[in-house]
Specification:
- This protein is mainly alpha-helical and about 120 residues long.
- The chain is built from five helices and no strands.
- Helix 2 crosses helix 4.
Length: about 120
Amino acid sequence: MIPDLVPDRAYTDEEVEAAIVALTDGQRLRAAQDLVARSAPGLQRALNEALVEGGWFDEAHEHAVREAATGADPEIRALTVRTLVAEETRLAMLVGVAIGFELARELGAAEPSTLED
């Protein structure tokens, strides 16, 4: 059984901020990290599909990759690559959080007997 499922309601900014602060306690993340590690292939597929469907890896993205990889000045090229990686990381994190919320809702809608085993 999965305890403490995400309720299907809106959250206040204060609730979200308090939850984020609570996540800095490493012990609280251990079970979630274990679950994600076991579920990584399926979660990666969901993330990839969401990014593609959202248009985040379209021609504009490919242009940014080519621009970052082929710049003449090595320092500017390195800065451009770092910026692109940071932007992609932030985007993937935000989409991943959205997938996590939806996964929690989906699991919450499942019959309890199907979640035990």
